[in-house]
Design brief:
Blueprint (H helix, E strand, L loop, with lengths): L11 H15 L7 H9 L3 H28 L2 H21 L3 H15 L3 H11 L2 H30 L4 H21 L12 H5 L7 H30 L6 H15 L7 H4 L3 H21 L3 H29 L5 H29 L2 H34 L7 H4 L10
Helix pairs in contact: 1-7, 1-8, 2-3, 3-4, 3-5, 3-6, 3-15, 4-5, 4-6, 4-8, 6-15, 7-11, 7-14, 10-11, 10-15, 10-16, 11-14, 13-14, 13-16, 14-15
């Protein structure tokens, strides 16, 4: 894909990919009702339903890694179409299943294909834009998913009252629609065929990259915090005497904040911050917002806390993915993003167990205070990550002097610093 100039407009393929992801996100609500479907339609216990959901979460880890490898070997567009089509088949299988083993099998199949399209879609953005615009592009991807999520809640509310199986049908249709759009409007990419440029492939060893592993660890902790908000907030509100359904309103406010605050990312003060400084600031805002949840006993207070942590989320998401993309060697963007992305699979297994146990034995205040403390630890941790990244920049430039923002903005055609 053709790159945009530094500071210029994002290229058309990026906007088309964002639009396709909005359509896909409109149907991405069925998984929240998988355990309910298993419990109500097949009479399974909550524990059994939880095991099936955990099996799905576990399957997403190899799915993410496979998506990164396929993106770099098979091509970004082909991998996205393959993953979305596989999701549609699995979703329709769940909707049509008439036994618990069949539902479990299709749930695991869904997990195995569920993350295939994430690394190539993220890598496609990295391919299309230069380093200086990656933060903005990934932040817009986060905003696009937020916009789709707002519509998804409304669709789920309507179809869910009719028949839960139709949620999976709608999700499958959104996956197919997204696949068709990607196949029709995005340009094909042609990675090096097998056997070509072996010296480049030999350099792509993400699991041996210390900086990437540090990003994976911190990303897993962040994903744990984020999923606690998504999964535990309704239960937390109920324990505070509020309506669990108010969590939907809070999630909508979060999405609106992420979309409305996009222009803030282009302010000179934020653009001048290093990646570590911006991520640390994001963690700090997350911590403040979660402290708000720990002390909130009313909906207005919870709304303010939601706006604060959403601003932190806005600062972090684009910076983190852009940083990982910049760490990757030529031809390895998909695999680097895939390794970083398994943080969500790991957190997806741990978050439900951790959140429910803390709520049950210590209460909502302890849960949100603990998550806020974890965010503070992650913010301080950026002080130790920054020197490592600075040393990485110096080695990439073949010199010993620090890399200035102006120098960092001058990139080669492959998006790596000169």
């Amino acid at each position: 894909m053709r790159r945009t100039r530094q500071g210029g407009r994002l290229p058309r393929p990026v906007w088309l990919l964002l639009a396709a992801r909005v359509i896909n996100r409109l149907g991405a609500f069925s998984l929240s009702f998988l355990t309910v479907l298993i419990s109500t339609d097949f009479g399974a216990s909550v524990a059994t339903a939880g095991i099936v959901s955990a099996a799905f979460g576990l399957a997403t880890i190899p799915s993410r890694l496979a998506g990164g490898r396929l993106a770099d070997r098979l091509g970004r567009r082909r991998t996205i179409v393959l993953g979305l089509t596989g999701c549609a088949v699995a979703q329709l299988g769940i909707a049509a299943a008439r036994s618990l083993p069949a539902v479990a099998a299709f749930a695991v199949l869904l997990g195995l294909v569920f993350e295939l399209y994430e690394p190539p879609s993220q890598a496609m953005i990295a391919d299309a834009v230069g380093s200086a615009e990656r933060v903005r592009a990934y932040s817009l991807l986060n905003a696009a998913l937020a916009v789709g999520g707002m519509g998804a809640g409304l669709i789920a509310a309507g179809l869910g009252r009719w028949d839960l199986r139709w949620l999976f049908v709608a999700d499958a249709l959104s996956c197919l629609a997204c696949a068709v759009i990607v196949r029709a409007v995005l340009p094909a990419d042609r990675p090096d065929p097998a056997g070509r440029a072996p010296e480049r492939r030999a350099d792509i060893r993400p699991w041996r990259d210390r900086a990437l592993i540090i990003m994976l660890v911190s990303g897993t902790m962040y994903a744990l915090v984020h999923l606690q908000i998504m999964m535990s907030l309704p239960l937390s509100l109920a324990r505070r005497g509020m309506q669990p359904a108010d969590a939907g309103l809070l999630f909508t406010v979060s999405a609106v904040t992420i979309v409305a605050a996009q222009p803030v990312l282009r302010r000179k003060q934020l653009c001048a911050l290093s990646a570590s400084a911006a991520i640390a600031l994001g963690y700090l805002l997350l911590s403040i917002g979660l402290i708000g949840y720990a002390t909130a006993h009313s909906l207005p207070t919870s709304l303010v806390a939601t706006v604060v942590w959403s601003l932190g989320d806005l600062l972090m998401m684009g910076r983190a993915y852009a940083l990982v993309a910049d760490l990757a060697p030529p031809g390895g963007t998909g695999r680097y993003l895939a390794v970083y992305g398994i943080s969500w699979g790991i957190a997806g297994i741990a978050a439900p167990v951790l959140g429910t146990q803390i709520l049950e034995h210590a209460g909502a205040t302890a849960l949100w205070t603990g998550m806020a403390a974890l965010c503070l630890v992650l913010a301080v941790g950026q002080l130790f990550v920054a020197p490592l990244l600075a040393a990485r920049d110096v080695r990439a430039h073949g010199g010993s002097s620090p890399v200035t923002p102006a120098r960092r903005s001058r990139v080669q055609s492959d998006g790596r610093p000169r």
